[in-house]
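Worked example 3 (structure in, sequence out).
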């Protein structure tokens, strides 16, 4: 796994250069190699608007909503696939004895 980021300016401080490429590559593999239908896929990316870009940015709430749609819309025999590429975060745990959610 390779994570590239730069710390040149405040705006691009934590920019990852391969995340959107990873998502696009996984999508192509799922379509070309495994026969998934593009119409059954939902991509959330934070790239600049344009052809093939996401209409929904990947906030925590939007990711959870997309996962809910995916699960709620599943039928017997469906294959569900979720791929995430990007920064993570630590969330304090509410469970005794644990500093962060695992």
């Amino acid at each position: 796994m390779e994570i590239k980021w730069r710390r040149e300016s405040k705006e691009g401080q934590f920019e990852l250069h391969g995340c959107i490429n990873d998502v696009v590559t996984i999508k192509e593999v799922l379509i070309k190699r495994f026969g998934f239908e593009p119409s059954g896929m939902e991509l959330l990316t934070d790239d600049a608007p344009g052809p093939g870009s996401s209409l929904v940015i990947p906030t925590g709430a939007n990711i959870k909503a997309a996962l809910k749609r995916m699960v709620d819309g599943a039928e017997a025999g469906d294959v569900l696939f979720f791929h995430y590429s990007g920064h993570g975060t630590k969330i304090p745990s509410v469970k005794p004895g644990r500093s962060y959610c695992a």
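Notes: The beta strands are 5-6, 15-16. Residues 1-102 form one domain.
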